[in-house]
Amino acid sequence: MVTEYLRPPKKRRLDIASGESRSSATRPNLQSFNSRDDECIRQYISYYYQFQKSEGFEIGWDKLDYLFDTMPMIDPYRASEYKTNDEIIREGTCLAIARHNSDKGTRLVFLDHVSASYRCCAGVLYYVTFWAMDLASSSPVPKLYQSNFRRCGPTFCEVYLFRLKPTDQEIAAVQVDPPPPLNEDIPERPTVLFTVTGPGSGFIPNVVFTRIPAQVSVSLPESSSPSLLVT
Known about the structure:
- This protein is 18% helix and 32% strand.
- The protein is of the alpha+beta class and 231 residues long.
- It has 2 domains: 16-172, Nuclear Transport Factor 2, Chain: A, CATH 3.10.450; 191-230, no CATH class.
- The chain has a 5-stranded antiparallel sheet.
- A hairpin with a 7-residue loop joins strand 8 (216-219) and strand 9.
């Protein structure tokens, strides 16, 4: 059995035995999303394209300073009140592997995780990239896989995706539409429109954004006009 393999770097996770991974903190100290903040919108564009092209698995969290729909799993910030990050990653990934083995006749075994993130959506969706090895192969070697699964309460209830990790070239080739307008149905907030202006580099094209000021109906005293549009 192969016991040594080349690993890409992964997010630091604390030793469960240290007790630190059982911290009550639930997320890194990130800034709240603000559609009026230009830097926030620029980072949102980067996050959006990375998420869409990689289907949620390949996001450069170290370059993002704001809260978006998806969050990285980094100790001591727990993604669940029921389990540690280590427990979630291992249990969810092993469940996905077991179902894949049953469906495909493989004998994959979990070796180690590389990265993990999550988002709340009728439960919690997890995106895990991990090393596994198929013992049914004539020459088993570790390979990178990805799985997207959902947890409902304390138990895992659905596996949506299980695959070999796509290459960088395959991810870059995925066609993604510009982000849909932000706040289009919220008159109290500015609407943000996105337009692609060029190919850009890597995963992310050149995108410009236009902010349309919010229009809010404000009640005034009886002596004044009934309402006033402010931006």
